[in-house]
Design a protein that fits this description.
By secondary structure, the protein is of the alpha+beta class. The protein has 6 helices and 10 strands. Helix 5 packs antiparallel against helix 6. 36% of the residues lie in helices and 24% in strands. The longest helix has 18 residues. It has one domain: Phenylalanyl-trna Synthetase, Chain B, domain 3 (Phenylalanyl-tRNA Synthetase, Chain B, domain 3, 3-Layer(bba) Sandwich), CATH 3.50.40. The radius of gyration is 16 Å and the shape is globular. The strands form 3 sheets. It has a 4-stranded mixed sheet with strand order 1-4-7-8, with no helix packed on it. A 4-stranded antiparallel sheet has the order 3-9-2-10. A two-stranded antiparallel ribbon has the order 5-6.
Length: 214
């Protein structure tokens, strides 16, 4: 899928996986996921999260879009802060756990969507006056001036919180994952992160075909 990027300062990668099977994480995936979570929980403080270079670069990206990253927390930073504060994470499903694992490792926000609920073309832009969606967790997000992914039906995702319209469920058979890497990140690092995601979707979500665009 081609995503038209209207915002500056971002290096956006898109990963489409077909034939996925969404369900509980396997013991092997759980071991890797909880291993990373436990290590980060031991090593991190809130101050260390704020000082990590990828987090700082994402925060600079948000500020360049006119957004206060302390008020509207980038998704990856929110996950890392939960671990640093001892609040932990929970296993959602194999696909969501794979996506969160990549986000924790890189410090970049990832988005995860049911591909069949998206009506291309897709663009990454600032939200317009009056736009909103019901976010996962039942919070209504008012999107004017905030970075959003939008299709023909309107916004469905962002590097902050995603919508229920395109939420991945056990009925999902194709997914779109986006990596919102800052432009300061090396292209090779973004390609590596996308490649790891591809391998994990094939290994732990039985993806039959995976297409990567960086």
């Amino acid at each position: 899928m081609t995503i038209e990027v209207e915002l500056e300062g971002v290096r956006l990668a898109a990963i489409e996986a077909e034939g996925v099977r969404v369900g509980p994480s396997s013991s092997e995936l759980q071991a890797e996921f909880w291993g990373v979570c436990d290590r980060l929980a031991r090593e991190l403080t809130v101050e260390a999260v704020a000082g990590w270079e990828p987090v700082q670069q994402v925060r600079a990206m948000f500020r360049a879009w006119g957004l206060d990253p302390s008020k509207y927390r980038p998704a990856a930073e929110a996950l890392l802060r939960r671990l640093a504060q001892g609040r932990g994470l929970r296993s959602i499903s194999n696909v969501v756990d794979i996506v969160n694992l990549g986000s924790l490792e890189t410090g970049w926000p990832y988005g995860c969507y049911d591909r069949e609920a998206i009506e291309p073309p897709v663009e990454f832009r600032l939200g317009r006056a009056g736009e909103s969606y019901e976010g996962i967790g039942r919070r209504v997000w008012h999107l004017a001036g905030r970075p959003v992914l939008a299709d023909r039906r309107g916004p469905f995702g962002s590097p902050i919180s995603d919508s229920t319209r395109t939420q991945v469920t056990e009925a999902t058979r194709a997914v779109l994952v986006t990596i919102f890497a800052p432009a300061a990140a090396p292209a090779v690092a973004v390609a590596h992160a996308a490649g790891r995601l591809r391998e994990r979707l094939m290994r732990w979500a039985a993806a039959e075909r995976v297409f990567v665009t960086t």
